[in-house]
């Protein structure tokens, strides 16, 4: 199913180049250029900057969402999915909205030129994973759907397509358009997320969607024969039985302090790592993990012999993100009448940001998917063997080392609700 245009992506690119030459708009021409090779050093530096921003974004969102959750709760987000689609929404934003998106995504405040470069590099990192490949366990895809009533600017459609997103202009009031969007999400998440929109937006405008999918096996699988019920200490002081997986004794990357212990689990594809951080004694709440959140970068770990005990997970969430994003600085800019003037002469304002996620962690590996919709309406050293038992609340992050994107991040306070059958 091709959403880019009735004429195909190549026609869009050729038309864009001719139009750009005539109108002399270098910023759009830069977007439409094919990616150029960069050095390994520059690539690592870029990935490090993205990882820093992604970790800050994920940690902050989890902290913001925590007060609305009941005791022994679970919070689960995809910084990569959110950042991916906002990086494309930014293409049509006002200067104020672009800077607000830049700050909201976890980047340090900077000049307009710095923000523009960071967003361009983020789109470039997303492009590495767009569509996936035979050898990659993950894929990202972005879709922007404009209602015809917004009279979208042709130049913006070309820029969005040239930057790597799918584009569709169709009547958002029609059920078949919503079904087509949901089918796009379903296909790109391998049926893990069957839909992202339940109905048409109340006021027609723009729907921008990211779909993310990941599936890979552990480099060192857990021993399925040793998976058994085990107690998990809840923050409330109670305990609950979970299905606890046991790894074989092997070499893993660990990090420890007086209070925390963490392990980094490798996948068959060496680009990806899952970091799990928990406490050594009393269960901890979300805010108490703040001092260990930098561990999610993967720094400071040392390879040691050991074994890991980790609950099986089957997580499903559906989060309204706009309130948390407003608290991070998006509110004023996204409500301005000209917030998305680059996309349309109509007065469009971001009115909802919804994220749906699914994650499965078992003895063999990990499978997960995320879909994020932005809706705009008018208006070390070897030592003794380590034994890490994750039998109390823990934080986790699934990291793409090549691009710096954090695919999934969360706080698990009550895995008994998530135990796989």
List keywords for this structure.
globular, alpha+beta, Antithrombin, Chain I, domain 2, 9 helices, 421 residues, Alpha-1-antitrypsin, domain 1, single chain, ten-stranded mixed beta sheet
* Structural class based on helices, strands and sheet pairing: alpha+beta
Top CATH class of the largest domain: Alpha Beta
Radius of gyration: 22 Å
Number of helices: 9
The share of residues in helices is: 25-40%
Overall pLDDT, averaged?
A: 87
Total beta-strand segments: 16
Task: Please report which band the strand proportion falls in: under 5%, 5-15%, 15-25%, 25-35%, 35-45% or over 45%.
Answer: 25-35%
Q: Mind describing the biggest β-sheet?
A: 10 strands, mixed
Distance between the termini: 35 Å
CATH topology of the largest domain: Antithrombin, Chain I, domain 2
CATH evolutionary superfamily of the largest domain: Antithrombin, subunit I, domain 2
Tell the overall outline.
Answer: globular
Multimer state: single chain
Domain unit count:
2
Q: Segments where pLDDT lies below 50 for 5+ residues?
A: 3-35
* CATH architecture descriptor name of the largest domain: 2-Layer Sandwich
Q: What series of H and E elements makes up the topology? A: HHHEHHHEHEHEEEEEEEEHEEEEE
């Amino acid at each position: 199913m091709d959403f880019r245009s009735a004429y195909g992506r190549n026609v869009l690119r050729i038309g864009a180049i001719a139009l750009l030459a005539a109108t002399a708009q270098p910023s759009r021409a830069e977007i439409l250029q094919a990616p150029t090779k960069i050095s390994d050093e520059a690539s690592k530096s870029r990935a490090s900057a993205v990882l820093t921003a992604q970790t800050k974004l994920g940690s902050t969102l989890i902290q913001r969402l925590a007060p609305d959750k009941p005791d022994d709760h679970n919070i689960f987000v995809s910084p990569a999915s959110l950042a991916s689609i906002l990086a494309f929404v930014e293409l049509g934003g006002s200067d104020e909205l672009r800077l607000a998106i830049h700050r909201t995504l976890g980047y340090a405040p900077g000049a307009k030129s710095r923000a523009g470069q960071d967003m361009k590099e983020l789109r470039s990192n997303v492009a590495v994973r767009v569509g996936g490949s035979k050898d990659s366990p993950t894929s990202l895809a972005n879709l922007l759907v404009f209602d015809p009533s917004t009279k979208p600017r042709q130049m913006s459609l070309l820029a969005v397509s040239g930057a790597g997103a799918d584009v569709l202009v169709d009547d958002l009031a029609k059920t078949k358009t919503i079904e087509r969007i949901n089918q796009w999400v379903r296909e790109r998440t391998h049926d893990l997320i069957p839909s992202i929109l339940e109905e048409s937006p109340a006021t027609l405008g723009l729907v921008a969607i990211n779909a993310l999918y990941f599936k890979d096996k552990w480099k060192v699988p857990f021993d399925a024969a040793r998976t058994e019920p085990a107690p998990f200490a809840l923050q409330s002081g109670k305990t609950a039985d979970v299905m606890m997986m046991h790894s074989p004794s092997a070499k893993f990357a660990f990090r420890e302090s007086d209070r925390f212990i963490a392990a980094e689990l490798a996948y068959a594809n060496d680009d990806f790592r899952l970091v799990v951080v928990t406490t050594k004694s009393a269960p901890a709440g979300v805010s108490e993990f703040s001092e260990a959140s930098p561990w999610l970068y993967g720094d400071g770990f040392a390879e040691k012999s050991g074994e890991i005990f980790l609950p099986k997970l089957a997580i499903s969430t559906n989060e309204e993100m706009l309130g948390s994003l407003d608290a991070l600085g998006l509110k004023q800019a996204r409500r301005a009448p000209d917030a998305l003037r680059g996309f349309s002469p109509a007065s469009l304002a971001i009115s909802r940001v919804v994220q749906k996620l699914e994650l499965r962690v078992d003895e063999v590996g990990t499978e997960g998917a995320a879909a994020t919709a932005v809706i705009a309406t008018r208006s070390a050293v070897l030592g003794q063997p380590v034994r890490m038992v994750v039998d109390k609340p823990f934080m986790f992050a699934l990291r793409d080392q090549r691009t710096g994107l954090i695919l999934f991040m969360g706080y698990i306070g009550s895995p008994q609700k998530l135990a796989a059958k």
